[in-house]
Amino acid sequence: MKLCALAVALTLAVTGASANLLFEAPWQAAPHTSFTALKVPAVGDGDSDGTVDPTDPLYGHASLPQRRSSAKLSHLLSSSSYRDIAVTPGMSFTKLRALKRRNKRDEAAALSPRYVSGLTAPSGYTYSWVTDGNRLAMNTRGAPSYLTRYTVSKHARRTTQNHVNACVAFCDETPKCAMATVIKFIDFAEGNVICAVYSQSLPKSEAKYNQGLFHGAGHVKSSYTFTRNAGQVPASTPSSTSTSLQYDQWVWIDVAGTLCSDGTQTGMAINLHSGSEELVIGLQEGGSCHDYQTCYVDKKAYNIPGSFTNTTFNALNIPDNIKWWFPFARDNQYNPWQQSNYAWIPYCTGDFHAGDNVIQYNGASAPTYHKGWNNVKADMAELVKLVSNLKRVWIAGSSAGAFGSILQYQNAQDAFNGVRVDLLADSGETPKSILMHPSQNIQVPNKVRCPNCDDESFDSYIVGLAQANTDSRFASMSYSNDTTIPGNQGVSSANFSAELVRLFNEEDTNTINARNFMVQGNGHTLLYTTQYNAADGYTQATFLNKFKTDDPGWSSH
């Protein structure tokens, strides 16, 4: 990025004479809504101990608090040549410049850009790139190259070499890691400095996101990327099937009768908790496809083409990815399912977990198995054998997993005969019929058991199921403007948003046990973090806790 000298406005406790008479050039008076400001040739990252001017997205105008007789420039994160110099209203710029020359940390006459200068690649790594704006490395949900992340510092105000060293050390300890990214956040619940690691080196063009992870709360201020010279960290080679069931650990189970789109056997993963009488079944998200173009050219669905086995489960580092999905967040103290048993069902059929067809698409080299319906049924039958004494079951999912959880609800009731089954659907709505692509042969709810389920409207299913099962609870969640489903379903964003309002109103009006949570704004899926509020300020974590615990005050927001 081209170096430039950006003036950062500093508020000083000025009394008496006009501010522009107190300093020699190039200090200049600058207008501000609430104070007299002075410009100084230094740069910051918009994160100061005073006012932050939001009008400059790249550099920020850091401001010292008013009514302070003197202050230091140490909070200007990139102004190393001025750092730790005390500034007073009576100080001339000549004096300031002289102090600057004596400063031990005066590195160069040229001013640095907003990024921290002096960061170096540790031994064995190459400094790949630094983003040129408010950007994150890349998508960390569903991207095969993403492995995991951890909080380097909860409260750090700047990125340091120690943070870089810690991040690459974390990469060296993570199987398959090939690239480490240090991300500086503001207002991100997990911390101010986060290390995210990936299984391959990525180009700078993949840095697309300026909000918190998963489009959540927080803002990305900068990121620094380092590539491992030796390539991926060697990974262990697990056996095709894990047979020892250890508590609080993800274990893959091959399940007879399950098939991915290529006709190969798949299975599921389980994470059991000692003494638990609860089970959360999570269905993986991942689009949908219905012909050669959408399945094999555009690749609109996860894991197509290809198989999904224990090797895939570990190669994609699914255990570390799904621990961020809130119902599976065993280490999250706010998760009401923290001590439940978990089961995760992969998505490799492109049919919303509900298709039942084998079809030869024109252009494809082999038949496509849309067998999600039988897969989930077989997985649940296996769970009945593995997990005994259950008293509560939740079937849940995000995106395609939400569609699947609705379509598989009655199968869950049948599998866990006599056990209460509740439903949690995150971003699984459409004004259209789910039957619009016959090639998938989607299986729909039994109308005898759900008389108000209408195949002309997928959204009628969750309302009808709630009306037919009043002892269970049904939760819906969505952004007000979903950025994915309209494209998948072929509807306009405006029509989708209107349908969402209609559906949520119907749940509130026509059921006693279906409620919803809406976040205003653009995005897709909510369960990968709980750092969301509804328009009225109500928190997502509270909504989910009241849903799970049968709180009589559970309500829509």
Shape: globular
Distance between the termini: 44 Å
Count of discrete alpha- or pi-helical segments spanning 4 or more residues: 12
CATH architecture of the largest domain: 3-Layer(aba) Sandwich
- Provide the number of structural domains: 3
Average per-residue pLDDT, rounded, comes to: 78
Helix content: 10-25%
Q: How is the quaternary structure best described?
A: single chain
In CATH, the topology of the largest domain is named Rossmann fold
**Order of strands across the biggest sheet?**
14-15-17-16-20-21-22-23
* Low-pLDDT segments, ≥5 res: 1-89, 103-116, 236-243
What kind of sheet is the major sheet?
A: 8 strands, mixed
CATH class group of the largest domain: Alpha Beta
Count of beta strands: 23
Strand content: 15-25%
Q: Structural class of the helices, strands and pairings?
A: alpha+beta
Any idea what the radius of gyration is?
27 Å
What brief labels describe this structure?
single chain; 557 residues; alpha+beta; Rossmann fold; 3 domains; eight-stranded mixed beta sheet; six-stranded antiparallel beta sheet; 12 helices; disordered N terminus; PAE/NOTUM; signal; hydrolase activity
How is this structure best described in words?
This is Pectinacetylesterase. GO terms for molecular function: hydrolase activity. Keywords: Signal. InterPro entries: PAE/NOTUM. Residues 1-19 form the signal peptide. With 557 residues, this protein is an alpha+beta fold. Helices cover 20% and strands 22% of the residues. The radius of gyration is 27 Å and the shape is globular. Strand 12 (211-212) and strand 13 form a beta hairpin. The model is unreliable at 1-89, 103-116 and 236-243 (pLDDT under 50). The strands form 6 sheets. It has an 8-stranded mixed sheet, sandwiched between helices. It has 3 domains: 7-102, no CATH class; 125-228; 251-468, Rossmann fold. It has 12 helices and 23 strands.
